[in-house]
Design a protein that fits this description.
The protein is α/β, with parallel strands linked by helices. The chain is 35% helix and 16% strand. It has 15 helices and 20 strands. It is globular, with a radius of gyration of 27 Å. It binds pyridoxal-5'-phosphate. Pyridoxal-5'-phosphate (PLP) binds next to helix 8 and helix 9.
Length: 484
């Protein structure tokens, strides 16, 4: 926590002799959502003024010239700067979003804000000095669009990171999956097998290509595609399989690849959530014909929006490059022999990506540690919840730490737990709704494991910036709520 500086406190402070108008000015200047009323003589704290207090006062007939001290307002809460951090945090809530902290002379020395101190997001970007430096370099050098040195560097660095021969940067992960299917020649009349338990984009891209997604259930341990059910989904029209490395955990690639090769099917890995995950000791993204990664803001590393397609096949790589750039012939400008798209990544985004890749090992290491701490400290609740299991052949990238409530052992539903945590400022998110139950795909079939995990699973805060105290708060809150 960085303390508010004296100037800022000064800026939002008005005395008990000030007018409502002075309060409006102070609120506007500070842009913190509050102003402070202090004693004109000894500068001690007298109360907090919010926009809402002023609005209510004006509606009651007060004017901007009236004294601020006469505004009707609730008793202001405050705490001592010497209070324990946990006790300060406890007093913050969606209703008390700002808490002045006073010294022994009752002067305001800091303000604790709910949004900064209490709210723990599920997954937020972790950006540092290098990101700022490289993005600044793009601006200073005027290279902000999709040409520029960072795009090429990002592609080379990423190829090295996952041991692929080629990496092609694209505008987002969905665009990458779409191009992968097109580059493999998948189109109308074809079927592509995807797991039901994934983000909607995995199936949407099949539709974009004019083909039909066919859904397969997951296994109960890793929640990834169940290869034992694959054969029953293969028809004469099947052309490809898209295994998804869900929440960072690799799909069981070896049997999937075996089945694919027996039936002459392509394999596209959806590794949008799994940068740095390993299957049998080798990074994901290089097992299938093509691998696709996402750099959306909540993913393991981010470029704001962005994606990368990996492959060891140079002919697929050159098709991908052509398709992402309007299908332009590489040997002749403005000559188009195929229908292409504008799916390019910008130099600005790639600059972020290069900086993020420099830190990815540290991010992955900490995420691995977060996973371990959650597992250890939630183990006492094993009668009430389980986790996504890490298979012996897998090294998960631990994108989101996700728990599964045992419905028979809890009086609370998953959604009730999400709401209870939210009221304490802890953001969680439900597992995806399976694709076969989505209004746009609803097939009427039953895929029990995907449905079960979807109904009872939730992801806990898992950002690279999460600290030990925050993990303890999350664990403490879940333990208290489930044992209540
Ligand atoms: C995020 C995600 C995508 C899409 O990536 P975008 O960059 O957001 O387009 C695709 N598949 C899965 C499994 C994802 O989690």
């Amino acid at each position: 926590m960085i303390r508010l500086d004296k100037e800022t406190i000064q800026l939002i402070s008005i005395t008990n002799e000030a007018t409502v108008k002075d309060a409006v000015i102070a609120l506007d200047k500070g842009a913190l959502g509050i102003a402070l009323i202090i004693d004109a003589v000894d500068r001690s704290f007298m109360g907090v003024i919010t926009d809402g207090d002023i609005r209510r006062g004006l509606l009651k007939g007060m004017t901007l010239e009236d004294r601020v001290i006469d505004l009707p307002r609730p008793d202001s809460k405050y705490a001592s700067i010497d209070d324990l951090p946990e006790s300060i945090t406890k007093q913050l809530s969606p209703k008390v979003r700002a808490l002045p902290l006073l010294d022994k002379d009752r002067r305001v020395v800091d303000i604790a804000f709910y949004d900064k101190r209490v709210r723990i997001p599920v997954s937020e970007p972790s950006l540092g000095d290098k990101e700022l430096e490289y993005v600044t370099d793009c601006i200073l050098s005027n290279w902000v669009s999709s040409a520029g040195k960072y795009v090429e560097k990002f592609e080379l660095d990423f190829a090295e990171f996952c041991g692929s021969q080629h990496a092609i940067a694209v505008s987002n992960g969905t665009a990458g999956l779409h191009l992968a299917l097109l580059a493999l020649g998948i189109g109308p009349g074809d079927e592509v097998i995807v797991p039901a338990l994934t983000f909607i984009a995995t199936a949407n891209v099949v539709r974009y290509a004019g083909a039909t997604p066919v859904f397969v259930d997951s296994t109960i341990d890793t929640w990834t595609m169940d290869y034992e059910q694959l054969e029953s989904k293969i028809s004469p029209r099947t052309r490809a399989i898209i295994p998804v490395h869900l929440y960072g955990h690799p799909a069981n690639m070896e049997p999937i690849l075996d089945i694919a090769s027996q039936h002459g099917l392509f394999v596209v890995e959806d590794a949008a959530e799994a940068h740095g995950a390993e299957y049998q000791g080798k990074p994901v993204g290089t097992f299938g014909d093509v691998g696709c990664f996402s750099f959306y803001g909540n993913k393991i590393i981010t470029t704001g929006e962005g994606g990368m397609v990996t492959t060891n096949d140079s002919s697929i790589a050159s098709t991908l490059k052509r398709l992402r750039d309007h299908g332009m012939d590489p040997g002749r400008r403005y000559w188009h022999t195929v229908l292409g798209y504008n799916y390019r990544l910008t130099n600005l985004q790639a600059a972020l990506g290069v900086a993020q890749l420099e830190r990815v090992e540290g991010i992955l290491q900490w995420k691995n540690e977060v996973d371990r701490i959650y597992r250890d400290s939630l183990s006492e609740l094993s009668n009430k919840l389980t986790f996504q299991r890490e298979a012996p052949w897998a090294k998960s990238a631990h994108w989101l730490f996700t728990i599964l409530l045992k419905p028979e052992a809890n009086s609370l539903s998953r959604d009730e737990l999400i709401a209870a945590l939210e009221s304490q400022g802890i953001e969680t998110r439900p597992v995806f709704v399976p694709l076969h139950q989505q209004p746009i795909y609803s097939t009427g079939e039953r895929l029990p494991i995907a449905e079960f995990v979807s109904e009872n699973g939730l992801s806990l805060p898992s950002s690279a910036s999460l600290n030990h105290d925050e993990i303890s708060r999350v664990v403490g809150a879940i333990t208290a709520i489930l044992n209540d």
